[in-house]
Design brief:
The chain has eleven helices and two strands, in the order αααααβααβαααα. It is mainly alpha-helical. The protein has two domains: about 60 residues, no CATH class; about 100 residues. A two-stranded parallel ribbon has the order 1-2.
Length: about 180
């Protein structure tokens, strides 16, 4: 049954893989393989590449590390957290209606930075209370570059990592990794 579930997962049939892993958990509720399979199958329905990569990584480390499940859980938790942070910051450029009621447009944020004279201070003042709404790739590149320039390297990397699904293999976005890492 486990082999069948893994086969379904590897084929990208996440709904059936989830069902199969769920049936296994019914009989073996503590089986790590099935618990990881359920989580990754659920993730696969939203993000196939990430799920497949985590599955491959889990297969590689499960025999070597006692805490392989904890490692995968931590990676998924970080992935979810980073995506959530990016979604708060980024509004898809393809989205027709943008909700600005609980955020500030990036252009307005830049005007605020100019009036206050410091990107870092302005960003620190609003980062926990206000969303910065970014509506296109150029704004995203500018924002991430400024984050890196002002010492927010980890945050900049988090936004970059979470933007993979939005921008794919866009070379301008991938080049930002060099900008961020060059600041370290």
């Amino acid at each position: 049954m486990l082999q069948r579930a893994e086969h379904e997962f590897l084929k990208g049939d996440y709904a059936n893989a989830l069902r199969s892993y769920g049936l296994i958990l019914k009989d073996y509720p503590t089986l790590d393989e099935a618990r990881v399979g359920v989580v990754l199958s659920d993730l696969g329905s939203d993000s196939e590449e990430e799920a497949q990569a985590l599955f491959d990584y889990y297969q590689m480390i499960k025999s070597e590390k006692e805490n392989a499940v904890d490692i995968i859980d931590g990676l998924i938790e970080n992935l979810d957290s980073t995506k959530h942070k990016l979604q708060e910051l980024l509004v898809s450029p393809w989205e027709e209606e943008v909700e600005y009621s609980d955020g500030i447009r990036y252009s307005d944020f830049l005007a605020l930075v100019e009036s206050r004279g410091s990107f870092k201070k302005t960003f620190e003042d609003i980062m926990f209370s206000t969303k910065v709404v970014i509506t296109d790739k150029e704004e995203f590149i500018d924002f991430v570059t400024k984050l890196a320039d002002e010492g927010f390297d980890e945050m900049a990397l988090g936004y970059l990592d979470a933007s993979v699904n939005l921008f794919g293999n866009d070379q301008d976005i991938l080049a930002l990794y060099h900008v961020v890492r060059g600041n370290k």
